[in-house]
Amino acid sequence: MNHVFHRAPREVLPRAVSGDGIYIIDDGGDRYIDASGGAAVSCLGHSNNDVRQAIHAQVDKLAFVHSGFFTTDVMEDLADRLCALAPEGLDRVYFLSGGSEATEAALKLTRQYFLEIGQPERTRIISRHQSYHGNTLGALATGGNKLRRDPFEPLLTDAISHIPACYPYRHQNEGESLEAYGLRAAQALEDEIKRLGSDSVAAFVAEPVVGATAGALVAAPGYFKRVREICDQYGVLLILDEVMCGMGRTGTLFACEQEGISPDLLTTAKGLGAGYQAIGALLVSGKIFDTLVGGSGFFQHGHTYMGHATACAAAMAVLDVIERDELLSNVRKQGETLNRYLHEYFDNSPYVGDIRGRGLFQAIELVADRKTKTPFDPALKIHARIKREAMARQLMCYPMGGTADGIRGDHVLLAPPYIVTEDQVHEIVKRLKDAVDAAMSSALGQGTG
Questions:
Q1: 67 lies in a domain?
Q2: In a domain, 5, yes or no
Q3: In total, how many domains does the chain have?
Q4: DSSP 3-state helix, strand, coil percentages of the chain (rounded to 5)?
Q5: Which domain does 438 fall in, by range?
Q6: What predicted TM-score, i.e. pTM, was given to this entire model?
Q7: What CATH number did the domain enclosing 37 receive?
Q8: 370: helix, strand or coil
Q9: I need a surface site. Which of 35, 53, 288, 352 has the fewest CB within 10 A?
Q10: 300-314: per-residue pLDDT in tens?
Q11: CA nearest neighbour of 386 among 405, 395, 399
Q12: Closest residue by Cα to residue 285 from 61, 14, 88
C-alpha cells in the first residue's frame, strides 16, 4: 500500500532514483530528459557536485537556526550578493522557502508599508488575468488563472482585481504595431486604478514573462516601462514576480533587466536554489525598508524556515556555478537554438499557433485553427495528452490548459537546465514533436476535434 498523498492520487508515477545532468533516471533505468526543469526549477540539472558539497559543508557547520534568535554569515552573504546583482533600488532581502511564501510576504509588506506612511485606505491589489503567483490563499487570489481559482473562490479575498494580460498573439489588433499594443495594454492598468479610486490602490503585481498559466508570454515592447510610469504617477507599488522567469531563466539574472525597469518589490525562488534546497526571496526597495525601520521597526510576518542556513548555502553555490561557468551566456545561446528548432519543427504544424519566449523559457500554443486562433475543446485535454505522450518518450515538459481565457487553450512550456547542449536541445524538440503528433492523432481520432 502507498501511503503518500500524491497531487493526482489516481496516477501511477514512475519512481525516480537518481539524476545525471539534465536527465532523471527511474528505477527501471529509463533516462528522462528534464526539458522543463521540473517546473522551471532545476536550472543546473540534477547532479551538480559544487552545490552538493556546499550543502554538505553547511550542514556539517550549522544546518538551521531560527531567524528570531540569530543571523548567519551565509544568509548575510547571500543577501549582499543578491542586492549587488539586483535592479537599482532593491537593497534588502527577506528569505523564505518558496514562491508562494514570497508572494504572501510581498502582499503583507505592501499593506504594512501603507499603514506606516498613514495611507490605510490603500487596500486594493491589481493583477492580471492568466497570471500565477502561488497556491496559498493570498497568492492564489492574486493570480488570475480561472481553473486554479474557481474551486477556492469563496475563500479568496475580493480586494484583488484583474486586468487583461499583455498577450500579443490574442489581443493585438490587425494593423496595430507591437509598441502601440503595449501602450494600449498598459492603459488597462491606469483605467483600473481610476475605476477603483487611485487612493485605494496599493500595488500592481505582474510576471515579467508569464510562466505556467500562459506559456512564456513576453510583453510587448514598452509595456512595462509604461506600467512603471503609471505606478509612479498614482503612488502604487510595483511587485514583479520572477519566481519562475528569474534567476537567469530568460538570459539575464533578473528578467526585468530586459524591460529596463526596477520594481519596488521582487519575488524570486525556483532557480535560486535550483531544486537542491527549497528557498525563495523577496527583494525590497530601500524606500520601503527605511519606512518600516523608521516606523514600527517590525515586519509583522514570518515563517519557521526563513533564512534557512543550508538553503542559503545552496543558493550561494548556485550563483557561483552560474557565474563561473558563464551559464547566462549559454542560456542566451541555447535559447536561440531552442527557438530555431521550435520553428523548424512546428512552423508547418496545423496545430501550433504561436511560438514564444525568451532564453531557455519558451513555449508553443496549440490551436484547433491557426487562422482563427480557435482553441481546442477543453474536454479533449490536449495538454494532458501531450504530457502522457512526452513521458512515454522519456521527455519531461510542462503542458497546461486554460491558456487562452482561463478555461480554453493549451500550451507546452519548455525550461531546460542552463547546462543544456545544442544536441540535447535538438533531441528535446524532436521528442516534443513526436509527442504532439501522437497526442493530436489520439484526440482527433476520437472524432471530437
A1: yes
A2: no
A3: 2
A4: 45, 20, 40
A5: 16-47+326-444
A6: 0.97
A7: 3.90.1150.10
A8: coil
A9: 53
A10: 999 999 999 999 999
A11: 399
A12: 88
